[in-house]
Every structure is written in structure tokens, then in C-alpha cells.
Amino acid sequence: MKKILFFLIITFIIFEAKASQKKSIIENLKNTNNLFFNFEQNINGKIQNGLCTIEYPKKIFCDYNLSNEKVLVSNGNSLVIKTKNSYYLYPIEKTPLNLILNKDFLIQKIKDLNERIIDNKYINFIFKENENEISLFFDKQSFDLIGWQTIDIYQNLSITYLSNINKNQKLNNDLFKLPKAN
Fold first, then answer.
1. How do residues 66-111 score in pLDDT, each as one tens digit?
2. Which helix (H) or strand (E) holds 41?
3. For residue 130, what pLDDT is reported?
4. Residue 149 pLDDT
5. Which is nearest to 137 in space by CA: 108, 115, 107, 165?
6. Which of 22, 101, 105, 182 is the least buried, fewest Cβ under 10 Å from its Cβ?
7. Is the pLDDT of residue 19 over 80?
8. Strands (E), 56-156
């Protein structure tokens, strides 16, 4: 009987800890209006990095550290990837960023998902939506979003890692204006 009681208490403690972590992630997301961060993106082994700003819902501006002057911008409806020599315009609904940049959607998903703890440092949630499989990573201490993994529109594995995260900064709304074609 003592073993069963001990097992039930340990199970309850673990369940409560996980529920508390999920609740903390949700509260952190609810209290986040925007993020400014450094990023490193690995697409099929090709690594790129730079600075990004996210404003919820569905706005992002990323300036890549490349000689081709690459920027990625979403105004909430469309997504543009522009370089010195190219210009691509997509409806944001056709990209995984449509889901990743929608914090209300993420909060609802997280409520229903089971988390995984990775290396006792990260909390991970995986879900499928509209033919997209998305894996989100949160820091176990700060409960900040620290990255995601998706399959991009060209069926490439894309892993994005966030660092030096600053939340709720004053932003210039012109930042999310779509750049003009070359």
C-alpha cells in the first residue's frame, strides 16, 4: 500500500510540475506583444543568421547577415523574401509562419498538447496543422520561445534558433511594410 501511495504522490508531483510549466508558457505568450532577437536558421545544412522582430499577430521582419541583402517581411497578410537579385511574395497562410506568428493559435494548441522535456533545458511541443508539422521549443527557465522546426514551402527542413531575446520593445510600424520588388 505504501508503494502505491508513494507512486501516486510522485505521479501527481510530476503532473503538477508539467501543468505549471505549460501554464507559465501560456502566461508568458499572453504577456508578449513583440520579440526582438538574433536568429540562426539552418535549412538543409545551410546556415544563415541575422536579427528579427516579431509583432503578434503574424508580423515579422528579419534582416539576414548576408552580402545579398536578404530580408524577410510579413505585414500579417503577405510574406516577402527579398534579396539583391530576387523577390518572392507569398500569402502568409501558405507558410508555417502563419501559425508560428499567431500567438492566440499557439496558446490554444499548447493547451491541448503534451510537452516533451529535452536535455532538461527545453520544453517542446509538436503539432500538425494544415499539412504543416511544427515543433516549438521554449526555454525551461524563462518560458520564452527559443525556436521552431518546420518543413518550408520547398519541402526543406528549416530549424530556427532564437537568442538574445528582448520582449515588448517599442517598435516602428513601418518596419513591417512590405519592400518593393527590385
1. 888 899 999 999 999 999 999 999 999 989 999 999 999 999 999 9
2. strand 34-43
3. 83
4. 96
5. 115
6. 182
7. no
8. 59-64, 71-75, 78-82, 87-91, 116-118, 122-129, 132-139, 145-151
Single-letter code of the amino acid located at 150: T
C-alpha cell at 144: 520564452
143 within some domain: yes
Q: How far apart are CA 180 and CA 166, in angstroms?
A: 28
Structural domain of residue 84, as residue ranges? 2-176
pLDDT above 80: residue 11: no
Number of compact structural domains in the chain = 1
Query: Is 13 a domain residue?
Result: yes
Cα–Cα distance for residue pair 108/118, rounded to 1 Å = 22
Q: Order of strands, edge to edge, in the sheet holding 122-129?
A: 87-91, 78-82, 71-75, 59-64, 46-55, 34-43, 157-167, 145-151, 132-139, 122-129, 116-118
Instruction: Extract the C-alpha cell encoding 88.
Output: 518572392
Measured distance between the N- and C-terminal CA atoms of the chain, rounded to whole angstroms = 74
**CA distances (Å), origin 134, targets 3, 100, 125:** 40, 8, 8
> Do the domain assignments include residue 181?
no
